[in-house]
Fold these 4 entries.
Entry 1:
Amino acid sequence: MTVYTTLKKPLLTEKSLIERDTHNRYGFVVAKNASKGEIKTAVEKIFNVTVVKINTISVTGKTHRMGRFEGKRPDYKKAFVTLKEGDKIELVEASSK
């Protein structure tokens, strides 16, 4: 697994943006079989920062119905990465005017 297949996309929710501003913690959707060590090396190599702590959670996809048909959203894994004080990841920043 390469560093670019470990991290799938940034997690840009309201809660993760508050965590980024207050605790210097960033959220990512990662590969389901990625370990904490693989996530750490991927973030450090791609963004050139120092990782202090990683928390992961496996999310089970919700089931949903449309009429008599039932389906299921896919399962995925989230990782919250805490960076060293002073380090920063430049993601998609919204400018407010």
Entry 2:
Amino acid sequence: MTPRQIEFQDKCVAFAVEVVNLEKILTQQKKEYSMSDQLKRCSTSIGANYSEAVYAESDIDFVHKMGIAQKETNETLYWLKVLYKTNYIDNETYNALYGEANELMKVITSSIISVKKRLKQIS
């Protein structure tokens, strides 16, 4: 892996850790299990799919795996919004996590676009 890939993977891991810690608070203190579990699943899946994409067998495989990471990021944004609107998470937590997820989404989307452009140039 390149230093840039390691840096992004570290961001994915740090984000997942933040969400896992939030999920612990939501389940232990607020007794909220369903939405927090959904959030944990999709947010931890972002980095897992990115890790798979890094070692993709082809550019097409890379785009596919990054597409999954993109979908998981979008779902993460959805669950954060629902948890905020139902008052399970406060404004500060929401803004911080939503901002981080949005940054992950920008990098993922940019990577997909770049590889798709390269694929078009080849064909």
Entry 3:
Amino acid sequence: MKGPQLALVLTGVLLNAIAQLLLKAGAGSLAQVELRVSNAMAIAGKLVFNVPIIAGLGCYALSVVFWILALARVEVSVAYPMLSLGYVVNALAAWWLFDENLSGTRLAGVGIILVGVWLVARSSGGT
């Protein structure tokens, strides 16, 4: 994978990962809301005026644009596995930002993902 292709893929992956983190940050305001039909308007109001959630959705939309541009230039069988890098980013960022558990088992999984992505990227040759 060439530099510009890799940049498109990684930008899409990072925007997607950032979107997930922003959605998590905004989701806290919904943790105590009961999920009932009678609360639908209250939930909608909390979503519409929740800055992290709106920013997260914006990052998702932008990530789709970069992803489409990447798919126009990179084989999907190479690009799609790169999305798993988002898990690596989110696992580390969630540990740092949200104090989520990052156990040895999760770190081993992150290592396996990194090896897998490296292997797939190497298999792409010059495409």
Entry 4:
Amino acid sequence: MSTTTIGILGAGKVGTGVARQALKAGYRVLIAASGDPKDISLIISVMAPGAEAVTAAEAMAAADLVVLSVPLHKFRTLDPTALSGKLVLDTMNYWRDTNGDMPELDEAPSSSEMVLAHIPGARLAKSLNHIGYHELELDSRPAGAPDRRALAVASDHDDTRALVLEFVERLGFDAVDAGSLARGAAFEPGTPIFTGSYDEAGLQAELLAHAAGAEMDLTPAR
């Protein structure tokens, strides 16, 4: 499978940051906000020249990969029908000051699983949430560079994970397979991966350490 068109839901700093890197990598990029595309066309022309401002429906319909870059609490506004069967990349994070209390998080090991429960027909992956939007450009390096940064990708679908791994590589990072979507908890806010910057070997070590810790937490006391 290959991706040629990226549809980004969210025209903020993260969405436009992903858009700029995707354009550099040769993708066609569509960006949508919640309203009329005309309302964001000027912002897009300045922040992500070459991207196209479209409606959310158009972005979801035309994209090979849909990128979610809106505040996490807005996941409830996503259209499950429009995203059914689509390959979707969740870049969102939970911030209490921005998102408020979200009791749904108590029922899911990771915020991405909470999102998936709302759009169960989507083939969801988690990545790009553990790098700052400004670092997407500053830290991007060509393949083989000794200081190339690594980013993790988690998904329950092998084909989705493979496609997003390729996408991350083309953005200028070493992509590391983190396993299932639940393993995405290893790079959410407050974790060493979220707060740090790692090469491929370092990131793999941190993922293994988190998995080992999670298994210990599940081991019943004797």
